[in-house]
From TrEMBL:
Keyword match Glycosyltransferase: yes
EC number: 2.4.2.17
Name of protein: ATP phosphoribosyltransferase
Entry's family note: Belongs to the ATP phosphoribosyltransferase family. Short subfamily.
Pathway field: Amino-acid biosynthesis; L-histidine biosynthesis; L-histidine from 5-phospho-alpha-D-ribose 1-diphosphate: step 1/9
One Pfam family this sequence matches: HisG
Taxonomic placement: Bacteria, Pseudomonadati, Pseudomonadota, Betaproteobacteria, Nitrosomonadales
Domain (ATP phosphoribosyltransferase catalytic) ranges: 51-206
PROSITE patterns assigned: ATP_P_PHORIBOSYLTR (PS01316)
InterPro entries linked to this entry: ATP_PRibTrfase_cat, ATP_PRibTrfase_CS, ATP_PRibTrfase_HisG, ATP_PRibTrfase_HisG_short
EC class name: transferase
GO molecular function, one term: ATP binding
């Protein structure tokens, strides 16, 4: 049995065509069903639906053989025990620093001000500001970072931006790009050795489907 860990929403949607290219179709829609384990048309392949941030953990411990996770999530997790053979070029966005429209970010930097930053991506943010030689106070949030600067919790946020609509709707502006983000295929290292005959054709089909789209 091959187990593939996925999150609902954009990753599931953008993975469906890749699975199809490997001859795999889910028999149920995770948005409609409450089931956490979904059967597929292939009796030897099942999908498990987990929180996006939990995908690397399931694969690391071998509860899933394969998983699909954003680079943002993998960077925070650290990637121990995971083989990352393929950038799937899906769920693309950018990790950015953003502030209120009326906040002078670069002026504060020049003055050497110590900024308060809210983020879910503490490790990524710490490394980014340390590399710039900036001292910041990081405050961990689990969602809606955009609210932080609006209510005085922080001067800046580190968050993902795709269309920019959320920043605009909340009178925020992006001031710095940290990195480009896309989702990656992750593979359990032991599974790769023990189940290579089954996993390799799936990985090859993904790889060809990604190349065909570029
Ligand atoms: O939503 P939930 O709390 O359950 O979990 P999650 O946010 O971890 O999962 P999900 O499914 O929302 O995101 C899964 C992955 O999609 C992330 O790990 C990213 O790699 C990728 N991705 C791509 C994004 C976005 N684009 C994105 N725009 N993840 C989140 N966003 C959010 C962003 O945090 C911000 O709040 O969307 C908002 C900004 O979007 P725009 O279009 O308004 O700029
Ligand atoms: Mg989300």
């Amino acid at each position: 049995m091959i187990t593939i860990a996925l999150s609902k929403g954009r990753i599931f949607e953008e993975t469906t065509p890749l699975l199809a290219a490997a001859g795999i179709t889910a028999l149920e829609d995770p948005e409609a069903s409450r089931k956490l384990i979904l059967s597929t048309n292939r009796p030897d392949v099942r999908l498990i639906i987990v929180r996006a941030t939990d995908v690397p953990t399931y694969v690391q411990y071998g509860a899933a053989d394969l998983g699909i996770a954003g680079k943002d999530v993998l960077d925070e997790h650290g990637g121990e025990g995971l083989y990352q053979p393929l950038d799937l070029q899906i769920a693309k966005c950018r990790m950015m620093v953003a502030v209120r429209e009326d906040f002078d970010y670069f002026g504060s930097l020049r003055r050497g001000a110590r900024l308060k930053v809210v983020t879910k991506y503490v490790k990524t943010a710490r490394e980014h500001f340390a590399a710039k030689g900036m001292h910041v106070d990081l405050i961990k949030l689990y969602g809606s970072m955009e609210l932080g600067p609006l209510v005085g919790l922080a001067d800046a946020i580190v968050d993902l931006v795709s269309t920019g609509g959320t920043l605009r709707a909340n009178n925020l502006k992006a001031v710095e790009a940290i990195t480009d983000i896309s989702s990656r295929l992750v593979v359990n290292q032991a599974s790769l050795k023990l189940k290579r005959d089954t996993l390799q054709p799936i990985m090859d089909a993904f790889s060809q489907a990604v190349a065909a789209k570029q």
